[in-house]
């Protein structure tokens, strides 16, 4: 029973954090597929009511990290590198 309560509270905390950061409820569901949607919604709703009551603004989250791929050398770059290696 204690584990179920922790899961519920975790879902509520996630929902509240999503609302506080200004994320849409659908985005919150998509970002947390393993968490019960009902728990996320409860937390989001509670935080929404609290923020309206206290007249709080959202706190924008930091941007999502961008995954950068290593640039593969093009054919021109490869030929230049080979030419430099041959001259040395």
TrEMBL record:
> Where is the stretch described as Disordered?
57-88
Q: Which domain of life is it from?
A: Bacteria
Which residue stretches does the UniProt record annotate as biased composition, category Basic and acidic residues? 67-88
The molecule here is called COX assembly mitochondrial protein
